[in-house]
Design a protein that fits this description.
205 residues; alpha/beta; Glutaredoxin; 6-stranded mixed beta sheet; 18% strand; oxidoreductase activity
């Protein structure tokens, strides 16, 4: 007689369906949402990965406020998002001309520095890209905390990086559009972003 299941009826304690997180009492990320104001930040010339129309003349340091004479689209990126990152970059490259046609500018904020970014993405990009050292800008946007890592909610992402986010920031630094994807399950829509830019410009006119 098989003894394979002979202890099956003698469990000493119930088995939980969901095991607790290894990080106790962690403080969750709190992404900025539409209607909030984007905190000021500084971008150093040494952190510029790619110069487009926005950063072409920047020397030394530039502030967010200096970059928002026109509506500014701020996009966070990490190649550690794998295929999701590739799709996002392709969408931005394809829609960049349409975004600029509205009068807005596009700034990509990369978790990786220039060496790593260009190694993974050797192609040419038409928009401005900067490195977010120590995730300083992502922290201000509320999309990154060490205590609430993305790898704790998304399988396949093993690096300590922010969650994807796209913001439309007005000259007053108000956020008029926000796309945040906590679980890498949503699909970013450039069309929705462009519609939000057009709506903002119509209100400002």
């Amino acid at each position: 007689m098989s003894s394979l299941y002979r202890y099956a009826d003698y469990l000493t304690a119930p088995v939980p369906e969901n095991f607790p997180s290894p990080i106790k009492n962690r403080e969750r990320i709190n992404p900025l949402q539409e209607g909030a104001f984007f905190p000021e930040f500084l971008a150093e010339e040494s952190r510029i990965i790619n110069r487009g129309a926005l950063l072409s003349d920047v020397k030394d340091i530039v502030s967010l406020h200096q970059l928002t004479a026109q509506p500014l689209v701020v996009v966070f990126y990490s190649w550690h998002w794998n295929d999701y990152a590739d799709r996002l970059l392709a969408q931005l490259q394809e829609s960049h001309a349409a975004i600029e046609a509205t009068g807005a500018r596009l700034l990509l904020v990369s978790s990786e520095d220039k060496k790593h970014f260009t190694t993974v993405n050797p192609g040419n990009f038409s928009f401005d890209i900067i490195h977010d050292a120590q995730h300083r800008i992502a922290r201000k946007a509320g999309i990154y905390r060490e205590s609430d890592p993305i790898w704790g909610r998304v399988s396949g992402v093993n690096a300590d990086v922010p969650v994807p986010a796209v913001y439309l920031v007005t000259p007053s630094l108000e956020i008029n559009y926000a796309f945040i994807d906590l679980y890498l399950q949503e699909k970013f829509s450039p069309e929705s972003l462009i519609a939000a830019i057009d709506n903002q410009l119509a209100i400002s006119a």
